[in-house]
Fold this protein.
Amino acid sequence: MKLSRRKVLALGAGFGAAALTGLSTSGIAFADEAATQAAIDAFAAGAEVGEGRISLTAPEIAENGNTVPISVDVESEMTEADHVAAVMILASGNPNPGVITFNFTPMNGVAAATTRIRLAKTQDVIAVAKMSDGSVFMDKKLVKVTIGGCGG
Amino acid sequence: MFSRREFLMAAVATSAIGGLGMPGQWARAAARQELSQSDLLDMDAYGNVTLVHITDLHAQLMPVFFREPSINLGVGDAYGKPPHVTGKDFLDLYNIQPGSAQAYALTSEDYVNLAKSYGKMGGMDRIATVVNSIRSSRADNMLLLDGGDTWQGSYTSNMTHGADMVEVMNALKPDAMTGHWEFTYGVDRVTEIVDELPFPFLGSNIYDAEWNEPAFEGYKIFERGGVKVGVIGQAFPYTPIANPRWMFPNWSFGIREEDIARNIEAARADGAELIVLLSHNGFDVDRALAKRVDGIDVILCGHTHDALPEPLLVNKTLLVATGSHGKFVSRLDLDVQKGDVKGFKYRLVPIFSDVIEQDAEMTALVEKVRAPYSEELARELGTTDSLLYRRGNFNGTFDDLICQALIEERDADIALSPGFRWGTSVLPGEAITVEDLHNACAMTYPSAYRSEMTGKTIHDILEDVADNLFNADPYYQQGGDMVRVGGMGYTIDPTKTIGNRITDMTLLESGEKINPESTYVVAGWASVSEDVEGPAIWDVVEDHLQKNPVVALEPNRSVKVISS
């Protein structure tokens, strides 16, 4: 894309729209729900995906879709017998939903991580934790990608 | 449609105290047209802490006319609940007599006639009288808190980069403030001012974008009446989205409720017995926040410019909405015992400029900061036969005028004017001065752009802005109104989801439907983009007024609102 979306659309209205249009018309194929689900299934390796223990922090509306800060925390004693083995981050609406997988050992002491990710459009960001006993927990958050609003 | 349940809950909380709600005394006095300053101000002190709140002054130093909205729709859980109650419904809900002083101050009902009877509201010298009067009896118990949007919104604030407001507010001696439009003076100017402020600028949710660490003090503990009060500041969460991020690229915002929770915990650990959130979130965000975050005793709400005559109780949190443009000052007296609020007494003090005395020192200071610009401020650009105002979800006559100017001066098919909620009103028959015009558009990124857009892009823009206003989850709302559109009509269903709200986009002149594939010339202003070219919007409107010196607007029926 030669024209920056922000410029074109911001010019459009001072607060206008269409982060989605900018990209979707450029011909990139977006991941569908099936691809995201397949990634979760592969990570879970047959375990039931539960709620709780993991919490994902992300902005409700991204200030800049190109670099969205997210962080993830998992409640765990982080002992040899019971610790977080890995946390996978997915961006369900990106061309490729896989973002990053953090691997942990008891040596980490806590299971927490922060990174910045690029989001092509409004979508759910998903964090899945796998514990050392094979159990799996998930949290997700809708992050809106917009050019701006008009607060006033 | 709406219930009084939440108010009844508030009433229960104060039943032992009495005196909550509409100050009956000034209601009766107003009915007799003999409102006096003591009717507005006298209140027996209660408890050990007095919070005085002002917010969203938008740099209005002088008394103003400001018409409240006649349309302010709530969606999701906020449907039909205050502040999404207007006009006659508002009067019924709060038992306000039509034609009374409260009716004039709080609604748009019969606005022009009542404006002529009751006069302008606000003015920093009248506000100073109120603040000083409370301070004279409650100095050791009182905190004066400024909710932000204080430094922007007038000709003089724009010319002085906020210096006029900073000087005047320093004289009023607030204990803390937070902000939103303040940031549009840019990182250097804001830093320069904040470093010199004699009180803290609090922002629990402002982060250094590079290092992802707090950029401002999040909270401060004050001791008043023997009570340690923790005041947490919450700047407008979507400042970098609703306003140009390039002006303050190093600061990141967001709701960051986890930081509020963390700061509550830290303040309590420091001994705070009362937690106050000085908020620029917007009312619906604050209402949602009060349900989600425990431990906030009082939220002083701002941003969405709502004025409510009673606090709203949400779980254990009192929400206070003080209005805007200096029309009101809130006084909340609290009895705090062992870390608990045992009771409260509240008064929304309306600043009737003809009733409340001027504080001589403040009058002199305001005159001093305005003096260099007095001639230009008073310069007349035209007159209006129609009431000019801005507030309302879909349109306001001041924006009708701005859109008309954009279409004619910039030779466009369609005009877009942002749904700002600031800007004062001009009564029919009055001159439109430079001051009036700048009250509606004074800002640091005023360029009027002209560009070609496809019908699809215009639709996407309208959908995006509509979602900022009508997303059923308040955390995704940005607190402005709908972008005002000139030259084009449309139908909107606020209850739908993004992409599905806007239909029937039609060029008004030809009646032709907007074609997604066709290209249209669009003129607008206040783009958040960095390199926008075009004349300042006030020059565009002034040029238009020069050619059309008498403004007479037809009722705007170009937006049709439906509900599924």
Notes: The first strand of chain A starts at residue 49 and ends at 50.
